[in-house]
Write a structure and sequence with these properties.
Length: about 220
C-alpha cells in the first residue's frame, strides 16, 4: 500500500468548485457587465485566486491597476463566502467519506493540497478536519498549481516522499502539479481534460481503493 494520500479540496472532497465559478461570474457581471463563458471554469479550477483573476481579465482584455485588482479579489471572496454559508457535510462528494475512512483503516496518512485560502474553514464545516494529519499552506508555497509546490508541501507535512503518495485532483493544473511532484495522480473528471492522469475516474462515487492500489503498484 502507498503511504500517503494527498487531496485537492474543491471538486474532489466537496462540490465547491461550482461556487468558485458562480462567484467569478457575479464579480465580472457586477463590475464589467460581461457574461463569463463556461470555458473559463476549467481554466480557473485549481488555480489560485490571483492567477484566476489574471486569467479572466486577460481573456476579457481588461486592464486594471493594483488597487482595483486587490478590490476585485476581495469582492470575489466575499461572494464565495456568501455561497459557503450553507455548506454542511451534505456537500461532501459521494464516496469521499468512505474513501477517507478506508485510507485511515489502512494507516495511510492524509494531507490536504488545496490552493484555497478557505480550505481549513471548509474542512471544519464539512466535519472532516480530523481525517487530515497536515494541511499544506498555499501562502507558504512559492508557486501555485500547475507547479508541484503545494503537493510537495503536503507530502512533507506527513513526512512521506511524494513517490510513496497517491494524489487526487479534478483540475488540469492540479494533475500537472501532481505529475511534476512525482506522486501517483488520480484524476476525477473528463478523460479529455485529465488525460495526463495516471488513473482516471469519471466521478468521486466510482473511486475504488483496490483499483488505485493495483494501478499504483504497476
Ligand atoms: P480561494 P482547490 C482552488 O481550490 C479552486 O479550485 C480554485 O477555483 C480557486 O481559485 C483556488 O482554490 C483559490 O481559492 O479563493 O478560496 O483561496 O481545487 O485547489 O482545492
Ligand atoms: Mg480542485
Amino acid at each position: 500500500m502507498f503511504k500517503g494520500a494527498l487531496f485537492d479540496l474543491d471538486g474532489v472532497i466537496a462540490d465547491t468548485s461550482v461556487y468558485h465559478f458562480q462567484a467569478w461570474k457575479k464579480l465580472i457581471q457586477d463590475n464589467f457587465q460581461q457574461d463569463l463563458p463556461s470555458q473559463l471554469e476549467e481554466q480557473t479550477k485549481g488555480v489560485s485566486r490571483a492567477d484566476s483573476l489574471q486569467r479572466i481579465l486577460d481573456y476579457l482584455q481588461i486592464e486594471v491597476d493594483t488597487a482595483k485588482f486587490q478590490q476585485l479579489m476581495q469582492q470575489k471572496n466575499e461572494y464565495y463566502l456568501q455561497l459557503l454559508q450553507t455548506l454542511t457535510p451534505d456537500n461532501i462528494l459521494p464516496g469521499i467519506k468512505e474513501l477517507l475512512r478506508e485510507l485511515q483503516q489502512q494507516k495511510v496518512k492524509l494531507a490536504l493540497a488545496s490552493a484555497s485560502l478557505n480550505a481549513p474553514v471548509i474542512l471544519e464545516k464539512l466535519q472532516l478536519s480530523d481525517y487530515f494529519a497536515a494541511i499544506a499552506d498555499p501562502v507558504a508555497v512559492k508557486q501555485g498549481k500547475p507547479a508541484p509546490d503545494i503537493f510537495l508541501a503536503a507530502a512533507g507535512g506527513i513526512n512521506v516522499t511524494p513517490q510513496d503518495c497517491v494524489a487526487f485532483e479534478d483540475s488540469i493544473a492540479g494533475i500537472q502539479a501532481i505529475n511534476q511532484a512525482q506522486a501517483f495522480s488520480v484524476g476525477i473528471g473528463s478523460s479529455v481534460e485529465l488525460a495526463a492522469a495516471d488513473l482516471l475516474f469519471a466521478q468521486t462515487k466510482e473511486l475504488n481503493l483496490a483499483q488505485i492500489e493495483t494501478s499504483y503498484q504497476q
